[in-house]
Structures are given as C-alpha cells and as structure tokens.
Amino acid sequence: MFKAFFADTYAEARANFIAAANQNQCVTEAHVNPVALGPDGDVLSTDLAYCGLSDAHSVLVLTSGTHGAEGYCGSGCQVALLNDRALLEKAHASGIGVLLIHALNPYGFAWGHRTNEDNVDLNRNFRDFDRPLPDNRHYRTLHPLLIPDSWPPGPDNVAAIDAFIEAEGGQAYREGMMLGQYSHPDGLFYGGRQPSWSNRTLRDILARYGNSRNRLVWIDYHTGLGPYGHAEKIFVQKGDVDYQRARAWWGADVVSVVDPDSSTVDIEGTALRALLEECAQVPELTFLALEHGTVPMDEVFLALRSDRWLARHAAAAPGQVAAMKAAHKAAFYPDHDDWRGAVLGQSRTCVLQAIYGLSTSWR
Predict the structure, then answer these.
(1) Domain contains 86
(2) Which of 21, 48, 57, 290 is the most exposed, having the fewest neighbouring CB atoms within 10 Å of its CB?
(3) Which tens digit of pLDDT belongs to each residue from 59-72?
(4) In the prediction, which pLDDT does 99 show?
(5) What is the domain-level CATH number for residue 113?
(6) Are 233 and 290 in contact (CB under 8 A)?
(7) Is the bond preceding 152 in cis, omega lying within 30 degrees of 0?
(8) Is 176 helix (H, G, I), strand (E, B) or coil?
C-alpha cells in the first residue's frame, strides 16, 4: 500500500522524486556530484524541488539522504508529500514555500553507505577546518576493535568491547562511536579534513532559497536510532526560546540532543551550522531531525562496523558480501509496509504541524 512512494535503489528514488516534482510544476535543480558515479555508471545528483511563490515569507525545508543509505526513508516521505495535493495547497495558501532537497549524499545513497565518496559523515563535516579539530580519545581506543581483522567479530573482540564499556561506561562507548572523529579516515563517523561537496552544495541551496525569508523550518530525515517505526523528534539547536517553540509546534515529546533520554549524542559539525551561517539574516530558524527507529542499536552499530570492514576486504567471498550489504540496508530501511506506513503517517503529521506553526505567530 505504501510501497509506491518508496524505492529499492537510489536511481529509482531519484526518478520518482523528479517525476513527482515535475507533475507539480515545481522549480527543480540538479546538482551533480563531479567526482563520483553510481554502481551502473549513472549520474549522482542532489536534486531539489521548490513548490510555492518565489517570494514566500516562510519556507519549509525537507532533506533526505544526509546519511546516504538512510535516504530511502526521507525520499519516500518527500515523494509522498509531492503527491499530497491537500498538504501542498495548505502550505501555499499560508504563504509558505516548500523546498525539498533529495539525496544530500547521493554517493552513499547509491552505494549503500552512510558516508560519502571520501568516507565522510556529513553530520560531522560542518565545522571550521581552519581551527584545530577535536580529538575523540575514546574512538582512538575503540578503532582497532570496531574494525577487526576477521568478520563476524569473534568472542575475543566482543569481550574486549565489553571490557571497554565496563571500564569507561556505556556513555563513553556511545560518544566514542557517535561524536565523530578526525583521526582515522577509514573509520566510523569520520568528519573529514575539509568541507565536502555535499556541504558546499547544501550551503549554496540554503543561501539562495532560505536567506531572504522571515521564517524557516527545516526537517531532516534520518533512520537507525530508537524503537522500530517510531519517529523521535530531535531538537538540535541550543536556545531555550527555539526549544520551547519546537515543543509548542510538535509536542512535548520533542527531545533535545542534550537530554539523557535522547537516542543520539550532542554532536558537533552537523548541518545545522550551515543553516545558522547561510541563513543568519532570517529572524526565526527552527531545525528538527526526525529519527526513525529500525532495528536494535547493537545491530545498527554492527552494520556500520561491517560496512567499514568490507571497505578493507574487497576480496571477501561474494556470498558474505551480499549478506552483509543486505543486513546494512535493512538496518536503515526495513522493507516492511508497517514500517513505511508508520514513517509516512508521522512525517505528514510533523509537516502539517510545521505548516500550522509557520502560519501563526508564536509567543
């Protein structure tokens, strides 16, 4: 029932998005990755569709594929919105433009990685590279354990990671894994050494489509953390006024990244920085990460580790490679209609709430 909005490959997702955008006579742009191609030699592109008046006072931004392989979720939600005439008309009637940015990291989307063509995690890449980069000391310890010599990890490897958690604590393990690191280019959650192509592309789009508005709301779609099918509303900004506005719009279950109950950690280098810098003249900015749960966190971490192991072992048996890639995809896109239905329902609710929020004054 819900499958029609979702795709099985990046190429199919891109075709669905472009077709839906053209059907709505949206303004479209294709930003082609200049250094990488897809598995079949196809173009890799970050595409955008803008629906509404060019001078709309407010804009709602929806992004998919910041983390490549997570893009199936956000792409499906974007295509569903482009087929939701009632919701688009409500936005238009309220003077709100809708900007959809599809596949911010097309390489990762197409090849089945969270990271880009340089193994860079985009949500650790938005920082000032002229300043000293932070040292993730826990990751330095964990790196050789996370990518062992053989796969699957053996009992000794499991015991070593358990010993780290016992000695340093579960939070140290989560931060070691998730905060981001700049010391191991072949490792997990690597933030890079310079602004990536996707970083520069996003900044250009935000500056041109966002900076002249009075109000801007950005919903960034993610998967892999939290209970199956549940969309955790993660508030990344630090200001209390902004936080209270987000809770007024989306409900009391909006969780700050600094809240111990959050499924993530307080990360530096996220795409929020691009918004704050490129749209600094906008009086009111609101950013929400919508994180959809898939499988238990241990399985997600194992999938991430397996992806980096495969990058080191190109000669692995074809059957093993196929099984590991399938498990990795399933960790970020469960191919089940109940999951897709839950995702679409929660997405539509959040979009509708954002439209109402942008349509009314706050405070």
Answers:
(1) yes
(2) 57
(3) 999 999 999 999 99
(4) 99
(5) 3.40.630.10
(6) yes
(7) yes
(8) helix
